[in-house]
Amino acid sequence: MTISLHEASVGVFVPYLRNLSALLDHAQAHADARRIDPDVLLGMRLAPNMYSLRQQVGEANRHVILSCALLAGCVPLAFADATPDIAELKARIAATIDFAQGVPPPAIDAAADKEVVFTFRSGATRPFTGKSLILTFSVPQFFFHIATAYDILRHAGVALVKKDFLGPPREA
Amino acid sequence: MTISLHEASVGVFVPYLRNLSALLDHAQAHADARRIDPDVLLGMRLAPNMYSLRQQVGEANRHVILSCALLAGCVPLAFADATPDIAELKARIAATIDFAQGVPPPAIDAAADKEVVFTFRSGATRPFTGKSLILTFSVPQFFFHIATAYDILRHAGVALVKKDFLGPPREA
């Protein structure tokens, strides 16, 4: 038995997006308990030239949206050019989950050998096949930003355990 | 076209292990240039109750070795119970790559529905199928530890860019 492209993309993205949303609940609870402005947490970063927590969440959503749109050949979901607070970040994660789940699985599964072109923020482009996009780029990028969001919160003193990254046990 | 279990596991692990090894080269060069004891870098962590850089590298290797051994039903590679320096960490990454590449791909591909049991350091166990092990646990854990190793180095001031996490473009 093999793995479908949909299982390896949407099937991985959605549960970890839910975990990311739950990490933001921990951030909110931590801020409430310590009377910290949540905006301070969202602005934290591990190095001056790395993305903030707010941006890490945005990048996780972005890689899900762009890879699903590229694979299925549909218009990517876009968010307003505003600075989201925790509630808005959670709403964007929920919208990203809805978008990913709304893409027809057969459209993604059919894209394994399809040529797709990813456009970076710089405007630079890189060609992929659907399969190489998922295995070598989008899933690694996705986990990079989720893990770094988790790392920023741990560094900020939020009481998380590894299970908060992994989420509840589930079938593939 | 679908993705084989081997492509989704060894095919992902090996290039990112190479990237991790290259991150350690950057750490060594940084330590040399600033006359920092490399052991200080290897002992850094993002929170007092998180693993150090040295341990993050060890965990990345461990998840590769244990998942490949569980899937293929072979004896996992084991390392001496010593405190590795950068050269030894790089040697262990190279040995992990050799181990992963030495597992017969058909043995991994045949394990999608196989029941496997992962044993945590605590002694607790969790049952998986081969496919759920890879998609929901081992690959996410692997990327968690690679991204966190990268994050520790960025936080320590080592001049890395995202490409150092992603590695060179490649086919899936």
Automatic annotation (TrEMBL), chains A, B:
Domain of life of the source: Bacteria
UniProt xrefs under InterPro entries: DinB/YfiT-like (IPR034660), DUF1993 (IPR018531)
Any Pfam family hit: DUF1993
Name of this chain's protein: DUF1993 domain-containing protein
Species of provenance: Bradyrhizobium ivorense
